[in-house]
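> example.struct
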C-alpha cells in the first residue's frame, strides 16, 4: 500500500477473488499470478520437498501430510518427493466443509465448491484453503498422480490441533496450518515407528478465528472464558 498499490476486495471466497484478479489483469497493465495454478508457483512450493529430502535422517522419510486448498503446495511437494522416492506416502488434508480437491481427486475432474447449505457446510477455520479451485488447474494432475491419500477433518479437530500447538509448543498458526496436524492426530496410530512430517505453513490468523478455535477446542475449560474475553476485547478495539 505504501508503494501506491490499490486494494480491491471481491467475492466471498478465494476462487471468486482469483477469477476477478485474472480478469482485471487482461484489461490493465498488470500480470496475474495465481496462488496455485501456475507452474512457477508450484515449482517454488516444491522446494519444500527438497528441504524435506535434505533434512531426513538416516535416509528415512515415510509419510508427509500437507494442507490443501488449490493444490499448489501439495502438487509441488509430492512431485519432488515421488521423483526422489516413490515409497514416500503423501497425504492431502482438507477441512470437511471445504474439500474441493479431495472430491476432485476422487472424480478425476475439478469439482465445484458446494454451497454452505449443502451437507451442513459452512465457514471453516482453515480459510486459506477454503473455496473453489479454478477449472483446468494444472495442480489436479499431480494430485491424481502423486498424492496417496486424502483426509478431511472437522472444525473441532482443526481447533484442537491449533489450540494444542499453541499450548504445547507456544506456536500460533492459522487454521490451514493446523489442518494437516489435525489429520495427523487422528491417524497417528497408523504411523507408529515411522518418520512422519506434518507441513504447518502460515500464521495469518485473526482474533476472531482464534476466539472461535478456543471456543470449539475448549468449550468447558476453566480458562477459556478469560481467554475468549481478552480476544473479544481485542476484536472490539480493532485488533486483527
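> example.seq
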Amino acid at each position: 500500500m505504501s508503494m501506491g498499490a490499490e486494494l480491491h476486495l471481491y467475492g466471498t471466497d478465494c476462487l471468486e477473488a482469483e477469477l476477478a484478479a485474472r480478469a482485471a489483469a487482461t484489461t490493465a497493465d498488470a500480470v496475474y499470478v495465481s496462488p496455485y495454478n501456475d507452474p512457477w508457483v508450484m515449482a517454488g512450493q516444491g522446494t519444500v520437498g527438497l528441504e524435506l529430502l535434505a533434512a531426513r535422517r538416516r535416509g528415512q522419510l515415510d509419510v508427509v501430510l500437507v494442507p490443501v486448498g488449490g493444490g499448489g503446495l501439495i502438487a509441488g511437494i509430492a512431485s519432488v518427493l515421488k521423483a526422489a522416492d516413490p515409497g514416500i506416502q503423501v497425504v492431502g488434508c482438507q477441512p470437511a466443509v471445504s474439500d474441493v480437491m479431495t472430491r476432485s481427486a476422487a472424480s478425476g475432474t475439478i469439482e465445484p465448491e458446494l454451497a454452505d447449505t449443502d451437507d451442513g457446510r459452512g465457514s471453516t477455520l482453515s480459510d486459506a484453503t477454503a473455496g473453489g479451485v479454478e477449472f483446468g488447474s494444472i495442480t489436479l494432475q499431480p494430485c491424481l498422480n502423486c498424492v496417496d491419500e486424502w483426509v478431511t477433518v472437522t472444525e473441532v479437530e482443526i481447533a484442537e490441533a491449533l489450540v494444542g500447538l499453541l499450548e504445547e509448543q507456544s506456536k500460533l498458526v492459522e487454521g490451514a496450518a493446523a489442518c494437516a496436524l489435525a489429520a495427523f492426530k487422528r491417524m497417528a496410530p497408523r504411523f507408529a515407528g515411522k518418520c512422519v512430517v506434518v507441513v504447518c505453513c502460515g500464521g495469518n490468523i485473526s482474533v476472531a478465528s482464534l476466539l472461535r478455535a478456543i471456543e470449539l477446542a475448549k468449550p468447558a475449560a476453566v480458562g477459556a472464558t478469560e481467554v475468549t474475553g481478552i480476544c473479544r476485547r481485542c476484536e472490539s478495539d480493532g485488533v486483527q
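> remarks
The longest strand covers residues 89-95.
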